[in-house]
């Protein structure tokens, strides 16, 4: 058993966000998308690339790859969480996914245009490592903090993530902007070195939570059955419980829709900016750094507002802002408009992630023993949302040849999520809940 609200345990747990957020910032948000877009845009073929004999728009290919990675993990997570719950070894799974993801990032050091297939595969594997690690990290939240502290602890994790990732980004920033300081003449070396540093950072700082968090408690009372059946059986059991909990079900459905928009924007924004505005790596990194720095107080602000007016009211407000961001993003024509939009997105990005995680945790049954299975259900919901969001974004660009049209689909996802959150608030009042 873990002593809840222990500062040392919480701090160690938050360092997992510190470690793996470097992947999220450098690989999905800044240096990799810019580097990838630049090397795959050529005079001969424009933005078209060949991947195992098939031709794709470059940004569509990377979004398809991410979508595929999330789809694989959406099916794998139920089995893995079931095994972790039964054997009480979820920290072992955290380690496995961390090492796989970190090693894939290190492998991206060798990524150039002539190794496109290898690069895309490693890009997808790194995403799988990140996804798996986050699931098992999230499942510790109700075990390390009591309900009244979960908003704050969740926000602390995201804040650590932003700070840690910004520190590494600044280091990478020096290599990318001032290669001559280090005697670097190969233009591809600084970004490739950044990928390597992400892997080392991710694996290295993860040792802090690995040394402090327990593995879990084996559940010997569970009947041993086929792992595949058992995994989805656990998911079915969670769904059966969720169906009996009207408010929790309502929250998950709304979360599913607005996550299609949030996660797709976070994963595809850099490619959009590079393709439509030609910002270049240096400006793109600077913008994302601003987003990360603004996101730290943003996550704390959302936690503070949740105490004052309730989680659902804050989520409604934030989703409205996201809809406005989509409309604004569709009409963006210059870099200064993008900077303004980036500042707004930064403020609400961490807040909606942190608050969604803690809201779900609060809705869980107080006496639940299968926190990993419940958070597996939460993660599967989010991953399927990302699959649909990314696939829609990529497919619309492929179909129309204009990446701006993809933003319209994201706005529609947010609108559906907003309507469902408003309905959820009404159901909450009926059941006298104050979240």
Task: Describe the protein in words.
The chain has a two-stranded antiparallel ribbon with strand order 1-2. It contains 16 helices and 2 strands. The longest helix is centred in the middle third of the chain and has 32 residues, at 246-277. The protein is globular and about 60 Å long. 79% of the residues lie in helices and 2% in strands. It folds into 2 domains: 1-216, MFS general substrate transporter like domains (Growth Hormone, Chain: A), CATH 1.20.1250; 234-434, MFS general substrate transporter like domains (Growth Hormone, Chain: A), CATH 1.20.1250. A hairpin with a 2-residue loop joins strand 1 (48-51) and strand 2 (54-57). The chain has 435 residues and is mostly helical. Helix 2 (31-39) packs across helix 11.
How are the secondary structure elements laid out?
Blueprint: H1 7-29, H2 31-39, E1 48-51, E2 54-57, H3 58-87, H4 90-107, H5 116-138, H6 141-144, H7 150-177, H8 189-205, H9 207-212, H10 227-243, H11 246-277, H12 280-309, H13 311-331, H14 335-363, H15 371-400, H16 404-430
Antiparallel strand pairs: 1-2
Subcellular location: Endomembrane system
Keywords: Membrane, Transmembrane, Transmembrane helix, Transport
Domain Major facilitator superfamily (MFS) profile: 247-435
């Amino acid at each position: 058993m873990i002593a809840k609200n222990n500062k040392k345990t919480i701090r160690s747990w938050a360092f997992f966000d510190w470690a793996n957020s470097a992947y999220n910032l450098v690989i999905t948000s800044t240096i990799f998308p810019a580097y990838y877009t630049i090397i795959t845009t050529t005079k001969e073929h424009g933005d078209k690339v060949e991947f195992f004999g098939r031709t794709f728009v470059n940004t569509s290919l990377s979004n398809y790859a991410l979508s595929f990675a999330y789809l694989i993990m959406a099916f794998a997570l139920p089995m893995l969480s079931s095994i972790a719950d039964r054997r009480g070894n979820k920290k072992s799974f955290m380690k496995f996914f961390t090492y796989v993801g970190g090693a894939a990032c290190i492998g991206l050091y060798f990524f150039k245009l002539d190794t496109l297939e290898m690069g895309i595969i490693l890009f997808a594997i790194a995403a799988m490592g990140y996804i798996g690690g986050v699931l098992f990290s999230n499942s510790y939240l109700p075990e390390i903090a009591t309900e009244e502290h979960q908003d704050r602890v969740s926000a602390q994790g995201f804040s650590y993530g932003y700070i840690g990732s910004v520190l590494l980004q600044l280091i990478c920033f020096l290599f990318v902007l001032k290669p001559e300081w280090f005697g670097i003449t190969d233009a591809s070396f600084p970004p490739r070195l950044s990928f390597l540093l992400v892997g080392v950072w991710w694996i290295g700082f993860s040792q802090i939570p690995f040394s402090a968090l327990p593995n879990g408690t084996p559940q010997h009372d569970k009947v041993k059955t086929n792992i595949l059946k058992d995994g989805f059986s656990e998911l079915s059991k969670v769904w059966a419980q969720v169906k009996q909990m009207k408010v929790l079900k309502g929250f998950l459905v709304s979360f599913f829709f607005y996550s299609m928009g949030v996660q797709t924007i976070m994963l595809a924004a850099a490619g959009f900016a590079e393709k439509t505005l030609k910002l270049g790596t240096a400006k793109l990194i600077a913008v994302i750094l601003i987003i990360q720095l603004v996101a730290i107080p943003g996550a704390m602000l959302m936690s503070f507002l949740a105490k004052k007016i309730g989680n659902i009211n804050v989520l409604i407000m934030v989703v409205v802002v996201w809809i406005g961001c989509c409309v604004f993003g569709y009409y963006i024509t210059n870099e200064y408009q993008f900077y303004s939009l980036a500042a707004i997105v930064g403020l609400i990005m961490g807040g909606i992630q942190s608050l969604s995680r803690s809201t779900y945790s609060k809705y869980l049954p107080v006496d639940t023993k299968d926190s990993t299975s419940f958070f597996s259900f939460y993660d599967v919901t989010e991953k399927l949302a990302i699959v649909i969001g990314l696939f829609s974004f990529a497919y619309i660009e492929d179909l129309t040849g204009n990446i701006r049209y993809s933003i319209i689909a994201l706005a529609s996802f947010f609108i559906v999520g907003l309507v469902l959150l408003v309905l959820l608030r009404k159901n909450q009042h009926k059941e006298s809940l104050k979240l």
